[in-house]
Automatic annotation (TrEMBL):
Family note: Belongs to the CsoR family.
Pfam families with a match to the protein in the record: Trns_repr_metal
Alphabetized Gene3D superfamilies for the sequence: Metal-sensitive repressor, helix protomer
Identification of the protein by name: Copper-sensing transcriptional repressor CsoR
Organism from which the protein derives: Gordonia namibiensis NBRC 108229
GO molecular function, one term: DNA binding
BP GO annotations: negative regulation of DNA-templated transcription
Keywords: Copper
């Protein structure tokens, strides 16, 4: 684990609030399926939840690049490259999802 704080630490409460809202959306989706809601209505809510997760992902990625990657690059070229590679792998996973 890194000795320094993670880049998102200053916005931790915001991320937790967003994630709790997403958790509520997931429970709402479960309820909609249990109640045999109309397919398109469920899909609309899935889309909203997906967009909310993407917003969290992009925010975390931005924080990672601005804080963790910059901090590692200041330490050494090798450490910076490692963090960039790590970020690129995360981006690839996000794009594929």
């Amino acid at each position: 684990m890194d000795e320094h704080q993670h880049g998102y630490i200053g916005r931790k409460d915001d991320y937790l609030k967003r994630l709790r809202r997403i958790e509520g959306q997931a429970r709402g989706l479960q309820r909609m399926v249990e109640e045999d809601s109309y397919c398109i209505d469920i899909l609309t809510q899935v889309s909203a939840m997906t967009k909310a997760l993407q917003a969290v992902s992009l925010g975390l990625l931005e924080e990672h690049m601005a804080h963790c990657v910059v901090h590692a690059a200041q330490e050494s070229d090798a450490a910076g490259k490692e963090k960039v590679d790590e970020a690129m792998a995360a981006i690839a996973r996000l794009v594929k999802s």
